[in-house]
C-alpha cells in the first residue's frame, strides 16, 4: 500500500504554550482575517468599537480595494494593528494545506494575547451583539472567570434582497435560520471568546485551555465538553448573541462564490458547500430584530 496523504482537515489544530499575562492586562481584542472588505468594514469596526472592543488585530490577506486605508482612517495606533498575511501554506512533507485562520489565531494569541483579558476570534461578517448590558464585557459577566466561551452562529440569509440594499448591513437583514443548534450539515457552528493566557490548543471554532481542557461555556456560564456543546441544552443567547450575516444579498452571494475563499483548496467544493448551507437556512427562517433594537436603543453610529 502506498503512502496515504493526510486530508486538508488533518491540518486544522495547533498546540501552543499560553502567553504570560502582562501587568494590567484588560479588555477585549478581536483577531480577524480580511481580504477586500472595503464595502462593509467601516460598519463592522464602528459597531464593535461601540460595544467595547479595545483593539483590532487585522490580518490582511492582500487586499487591493483600500481596506487597510479605511481601517487607518477609523482607528488609531492604540486600537489597530494591521499584519500583512498573504498566501497559502502547505506542509512540504505531506502536501496538506495548512488552515490559514488557525495559524492567524495562534499568532495573535502568542504575540498579543498577554495584554488582554479576552480575545474574540470571529470574521468580518460576524457581529458580537450584547443582549444584556451595552458592551461585550458586560454581556460576559455571567461567565465569570471561566476562560473559554462558545457562541453559536445565528445565521442570516438574504432576507429577500436580490441586490445590495441601501443602508447598513445590520439594519437590512432580519431573517435567520430558526434553529442555531440544527444538525443540518455545516449550518451549525460556533465562534469563541477566550482568555488568551490560558489557551493550549487552537482551531477555528474551538479551543482548549490549560485548566479546563476542552470544557467550554455558553454565554450564561453553563459548561459543556467540546462535543456536548452541540446538544440543544447548550444553547443560550440571553446575554450575548453572535450574528453571522452569511450571504448578504443574492447578487453578493453569487459574487462571493465566483471569488472563492482564500483558505479553501477547492473552489468547487467551497461553492457546493455554500449553496447547500443557503438552501438549508432558507428552509426554516425566523425574524430576528434584536440587532436593530440594540443599535436604536444605544444610538450607534454605523457611518452610513
From TrEMBL:
One CC-aspect GO term: membrane
Membrane topology: Single-pass membrane protein
Molecular-function annotations in GO: glycosyltransferase activity
Subcellular localization(s) per the UniProt record: Membrane
Keyword Membrane in annotation: yes
UniProt KW keywords: Glycosyltransferase, Membrane, Transferase, Transmembrane, Transmembrane helix
UniProt xrefs under InterPro entries: Glyco_transf_92 (IPR008166), Nucleotide-diphossugar_trans (IPR029044)
Broad class of where this protein is predominantly found: membrane
Keyword Ribonucleoprotein: no
Coiled coil regions, renumbered to chain: none
Protein name per UniProt: Glycosyltransferase family 92 protein
Gene source species: Rhizobium leucaenae
